[in-house]
Structure formats: structure tokens, C-alpha cells
Amino acid sequence: MTAPVLRARDLGRRYGRRHALQGCTLDIPAGHVVGLVGPNGAGKTTLLSLAAGQLAPTSGTIEVLGRTPAATPGHLARVGFVAQDTPTYAGLTIAEHLRLGARLNPRWDAALAADRIARLGLDPSAKAGRLSGGQRAQLALTLGVAKRPELLILDEPVAALDPLARREFLRSLMEAVAEQEMSVVLSSHLVADLERTCDHLVVLVASRVQVCGEVEELLATHHRLTGPRRDADRLPADQHVVSASHTDRQSTFVVRTSGPILDPAWKVSGVDLEDLVLAYMSADAQAPARPVLEVRR
Questions:
Q1: Which residue from 91, 161, 185, 208 has the highest number of Cβ atoms inside 10 Å of its Cβ?
Q2: In b/e form, how buried is each residue of 247-272, taking b as 16+ CB within 10 angstroms?
Q3: In this predicted model, what pLDDT tens digit does every residue of 256-297 receive, in sequence order?
Q4: Could you tell me the pTM of the whole model?
């Protein structure tokens, strides 16, 4: 089995008395485009900053590509990171950004970078401060992929973009993934974007991993049950209740199970990715599901 690209065990980061991340345990497998989703304040940005080596944990451990994040310059070169505000230097031109990338990254692919800029129709002499939000995001993505990383970490890179710019950014991302066969962790609160790009999902709520697994398998094992009102503890033991809602006469559950649902009282329907994410983020969600710590391929 391939070693995970990211492994966290009881990981935490504290600022004074405030915990930005606490007790996070997670394995992210190699060879996937992984969507990291959760409500504001769940710890997504903190987790990704820890993975990129920009922060140090105050508790627990984290390994990226088998080592402590940013342990050495060589290890740092194996990881690409695009932060939430897609940082660029306003006073530098696109060409100067690419030259800087070449100086800082030993695995830099100058031909790839130049080709991406040309395909995007960007003027190398244009200063970053004069680019649109979508163009700056594309420049930041170019800087990330041209260093030829084994793992690319993206922290909500399209959050501030309009729908067209988001679509173009994600299309460029998937082209880069296909060309380079790198692993990607993409944080986003836009589930539709995750549906287009991700084959693996992590839901993080209040620092805890609620569910982790391949999207296809998760959708196949989650179901919505609707029927006469019933308490959750009357469901079979193999039907893990993710969320529950009730009226005077009717109950609706989202459950996770790998077995058949045989009770004829239930109307059984599937869930889409947004339904699944919202169920785990719901305030009515039951105890967290056990994370998928081993992914067989």
C-alpha cells in the first residue's frame, strides 16, 4: 500500500488559549485530488499551513511525504503551496515572478511555466498588481506547478473569483494534475468545485475528521432514509447515523452502511456530495464517523 502524502496524529495548533486546531488525526493517500471541506473555523487553513511548514504544531505530529514539513530545502521543493489570497508581488512582472521561481526552486520547469503563461494569454511584462483576480490566481498556480511538486496544497484559491475565472482555474489545475501525476489537497467551501475536481474527500468540523475516503465509495455507502418517526437507536447497528431530523410523524436519517437496507418502512434514496457534506457539518450530526485511515487501491 502506498504511503500517505500527509499523516497527522492528534495534531494541534494553539494561539494562547485559543485552539485553531486540536486533536486532528488524518491520513491522505497519494495519487488523489483530495477535497478538504468544513465550516469556517474548522481548522482547514491551519492544517494546510502546518502541512506546508509555515506553522509548527503545538501538539501531536504531522508528516508530509514521510518527513516533517519543510524539514530541508530538498523536502520543501517537493511541496507546492498556494495560499488563500493567491499571493504575488504587486510590483513584479510575470516574467520576474518566473525568474524568481527558477532561482528558488531546484526542480523548476521553465518551459512548463512559460508555456502556461502563453496558453493563458498573459503578457510576461505585465505587473502582478495590474492583473485581475483570476489572472493572479493563474500566476500563483503556475508558480506552484512549475516547481514540479509531488504534493500541491491549495487553500481556497478560487474563493474570491467569479464563476468563469473559477472554472478556468480548475480546468488548468486538472490539466496540470494529468500532465504531472502529482497529489493535490484542495481546500474549498464550494462543493460544486469539489465535485468537478476531487476523487477523495475529507470533512473537517471543529478540528475533527468527520469522514475521509474516496468520493465514489462514500456516495455508494451513504443513504437517506425517510419513513415513520423512529428513534435513531432503533436502527440496525451497522447503520451509522450521520444526521437526523424529525417531524411529529416522520423521521429522515442520513446513514452510512455497506450492507443492504431491508426494512420496508423506509424510503431509501441516494445522496449527492453536497448532501453528504452538509450532513456531516450539521449541528444535529451524531458522534463523528471513524476516519478512513487505510485506503486500498
A1: 185
A2: eeeebbbbbbbeeeeeeeebeeeebe
A3: 999 999 999 999 999 999 999 999 998 544 444 444 433 333
A4: 0.88
